[in-house]
């Protein structure tokens, strides 16, 4: 059924990210409807490229006060919304939709706003009992909307990714991103000296670099850490000159960007980090929503409610009776919860999730085997010439991993067990380390359908892959754009219908030529990403 739906979004970056699974679930049920999101300008960029949202309406300062709310209500009324779903808990969220005359108004029955709602969802202080992702999903489920869990995902354009990569090209890889601030209050902030200590260890052990993030009001914290890191850096061995076998990247060790990025730039830059260390904060939520391996520090707040979502992340929290207290500042005036998080534990966590292995990722249909247009029968499975040559890549330490879009599963054209069976042939017969597939339709806007990099992120976690030292081999532009999205090298094989790609680093006639190129390129040590 086609409707015009208004969603009142939340005002904090972290909660905005945690509403994404609910927004995706809403879109899946009302896929023919037009969804508009009403949010403050401070969080609107989170959804700027999100295909589940047709329109973003800014709740600007001019809509504050009684007159402003009436103006906003009149604007919403002209748009003819039939349904309003209120993720924001505030009283005025319900009042404005009531004044706008929206026939169906759904929200939690809290903050004295029940009389303005047509469907009041019972509220029993559940936001202190369940993760906030579930809090928003439960609102939909209580209305009869079957919204399944999905990982929050912030969509980035390729241009945004490339611009961020260019900005960070001055840094040596691997790059540790740190976010030492937290807007909610000082009780959530780990000690600057310990951020600096962990950073110095990272730079010494990996010969890599650090980028410091933060808001305009967190410049003093960032500057203190930069000063301490540079002072500690005086005891570190100097970076060796770049060589063919050395670390890729630039020559800088520290880049302080606190207060110098827009929100969209921040999102893209965090996506380019190899690992991220953060207090419980907006950037922490951004990190897992762009697939960057994350170490999250919790003291006064609870990861059970606002912790990172998805695999490949580590949460460190103290074991204290006063934690979590949910206070902005420490009532005991000692922030013992933050002192109890040791630098050694944090650094060990970073080492645990920092990936080092290179891989070659292969598309399946049209690259490894003939494209049978939704391969669904074993008789139609025909591996392409050169597939036996892939084993040579192992001599240079490459893992072999398959990544394939299989929307035929969702369309009912391909049995999922059969798809797994074919994928497993490459593991058992041709020595692949793993094989990943996306079973979703394009209109589901998942993070795993190429060219979105979700499958590569899963491989990074499960197989220990350093994506920026890797290659993607495929027969379509989507494969080449996938490589560009993560900073891998892109190799187009002319085994399908496509003969060239503006996103390819190399074009090969077939698998053997692709292997020869990767072997030569890999031996040279030139495994840095295409900028």
Summarize the topology.
Layout: E1 4-8, H1 13-18, H2 20-29, E2 34-39, E3 55-58, H3 65-79, E4 83-86, H4 91-99, E5 104-108, E6 119-121, H5 132-142, H6 158-167, E7 175-179, H7 192-206, E8 209-212, H8 219-233, E9 254-256, H9 263-271, E10 275-279, H10 282-289, E11 294-297, H11 303-306, E12 313-316, H12 336-339, H13 343-353, E13 359-362, E14 399-405, H14 407-410, H15 416-428, E15 434-438, H16 454-463, E16 471-474, H17 477-486, E17 489-493, E18 506-508, H18 511-523
Parallel strand pairs: 1-2, 1-4, 2-3, 4-5, 5-6, 7-8, 7-10, 8-9, 10-11, 11-12, 13-14, 13-16, 14-15, 16-17, 17-18
Helix pairs in contact: 2-5, 3-4, 6-9, 7-8, 7-13
Radius of gyration over C-alpha positions, nearest whole angstrom: 25 Å
Q: Helicity level, as a percent range?
A: 25-40%
Distance between the termini: 45 Å
Strand composition percent: 15-25%
Strands in their spatial order, largest beta sheet: 3-2-1-4-5-6
């Amino acid at each position: 059924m086609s409707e015009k739906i208004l969603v009142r979004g939340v005002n904090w970056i972290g909660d905005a990210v945690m509403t994404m699974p609910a927004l995706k679930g809403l879109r899946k049920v009302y896929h023919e409807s037009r969804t508009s999101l009403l949010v403050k300008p401070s969080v609107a960029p989170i959804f700027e490229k999100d295909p589940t949202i047709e329109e973003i309406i800014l709740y600007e300062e001019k809509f504050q006060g009684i007159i402003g709310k009436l103006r906003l209500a009149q604007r919403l009324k002209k748009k003819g919304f039939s349904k309003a779903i209120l993720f924001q808990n505030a009283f005025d969220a319900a009042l404005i939709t009531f004044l706008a005359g929206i026939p169906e108004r759904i929200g939690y029955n809290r903050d004295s706003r029940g009389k303005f709602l047509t469907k009041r969802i019972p509220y029993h202080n559940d936001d202190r009992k369940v993760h906030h992702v579930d809090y928003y999903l439960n609102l939909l489920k209580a209305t009869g909307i079957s919204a399944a869990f999905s990982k929050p995902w912030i969509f980035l354009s390729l241009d945004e990714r490339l611009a961020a990569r260019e900005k960070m090209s001055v840094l040596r890889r691997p790059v540790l991103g740190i976010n030492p601030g937290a807007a909610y209050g000082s009780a959530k902030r780990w000690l600057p000296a310990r951020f600096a200590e962990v950073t110095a260890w990272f730079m010494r052990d990996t010969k890599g670099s650090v980028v410091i993030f933060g808001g305009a009001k967190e410049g003093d914290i960032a500057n203190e850490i930069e000063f301490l890191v540079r002072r500690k850096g005086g005891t570190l061995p100097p970076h060796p000159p770049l060589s063919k076998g050395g670390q890729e990247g630039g020559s800088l060790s520290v880049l302080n960007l606190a207060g110098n990025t827009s929100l969209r730039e921040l999102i893209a830059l965090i996506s380019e980090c190899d690992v991220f260390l953060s207090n419980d904060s907006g950037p922490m939520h951004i990190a897992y929503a762009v697939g960057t391996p994350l170490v999250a520090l919790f003291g006064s707040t609870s990861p059970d409610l606002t912790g990172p979502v998805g695999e490949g992340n580590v949460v460190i929290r103290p074991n204290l009776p006063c934690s979590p207290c949910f206070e902005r500042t420490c009532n005991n005036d000692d922030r013992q919860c933050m002192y109890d998080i040791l630098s050694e534990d944090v650094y060990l966590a970073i080492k645990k999730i920092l990936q080092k292995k290179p891989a070659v990722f292969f598309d399946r249909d049209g690259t490894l085997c003939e494209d049978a247009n939704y391969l669904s029968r074993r008789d139609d499975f025909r591996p392409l010439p050169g597939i036996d040559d892939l084993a040579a890549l192992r001599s240079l330490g490459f893992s072999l991993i398959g990544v394939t879009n299989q929307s035929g599963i969702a369309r009912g054209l391909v049995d999922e067990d059969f798809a797994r069976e074919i994928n497993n042939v490459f593991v058992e017969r041709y020595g692949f380390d793993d094989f990943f597939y996306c079973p979703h339709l394009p209109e589901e806007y998942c993070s795993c359908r190429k060219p979105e990099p979700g499958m590569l992120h899963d491989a990074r976690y499960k197989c220990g892959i350093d994506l920026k030292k890797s290659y993607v081999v495929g027969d379509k532009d989507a494969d080449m754009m996938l490589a560009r999205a993560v900073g891998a090298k892109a190799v187009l094989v002319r085994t399908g219908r496509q003969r060239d790609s503006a996103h390819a680093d190399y074009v090969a006639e077939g698998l053997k030529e692709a292997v020869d190129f990767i072997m030569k390129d890999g031996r040279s040590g030139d495994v840095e990403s295409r900028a």
